[in-house]
Amino acid sequence: MLTLSNVSVNYGAIEALTGISLHVEQGEVVTLIGANGAGKTTTLRTITGLLEPRSGTVHFEGEDISGTATHKLVARGISMSPEGRGVFANLTVRENLQMGAYLNKNKRAIAADMERAFKMFPRLKEREAQKAGTLSGGEQQMLAMGRALMSNPRLLLLDEPSLGLAPLVVHTIFEAIDEIKSKGTTILLVEQNAHAALGHSDRAYVLETGRIVMEGPSKDLAADPRIKEAYLGE
Questions:
Q1: Which domains does the chain have, with CATH numbers?
Q2: What is the predicted pLDDT for the residue at 232?
Q3: What is the rounded average pLDDT for all residues in the chain?
Q4: What is the Cα–Cα distance from 139 to 147, expressed in whole angstroms?
Q5: Quick check: 203 pLDDT over 90?
């Protein structure tokens, strides 16, 4: 479904990604793990057209999308829940969700999608008339994910969904990831919580200073002594 081939990306003179190659097959949850500054978010920004590769290509469903404008990628079936949530603070929960469906002109379909978001995250239903800026961090993360799902993506990109959240909320977020996968949506997950990421994904890539240094089935990486020491605190 998604393939990055020898992708390199620069921020000015600084090389942020160096010849990375990865693939995500339909129906998978694939995770990128690594320390701060490893290049995880840069990878997502490159996929979504916010950054253009200096070299290499990004293909989605067989088509080269390298450097394609972000709004065109949403129409093609790619959606992202960004790091930091990026909710519209002065809009209500309902209005934020509606923003995620801006390409859909079918009011009945939008209403059905919103009900699905409320079913996945009941807390949002309770807060639907509340301004997003007044929500807790966990509620804002639920809203960001719900908004990303409103475009009915075939590929969902999640950037640090558990960052700064309490353990109970992290559990809720990863339960939602499992549910999203069960409904057929493919997920590429960027996550510093390696333990949770490896426990809720099919395959994983490890990024260090812009390079992929390990890859494989998540259960195998979780058992690897190098991963245990570097990322799992064991």
A1: 2-77+153-231 (3.40.50.300), 87-152 (no CATH)
A2: 87
A3: 94
A4: 12
A5: yes
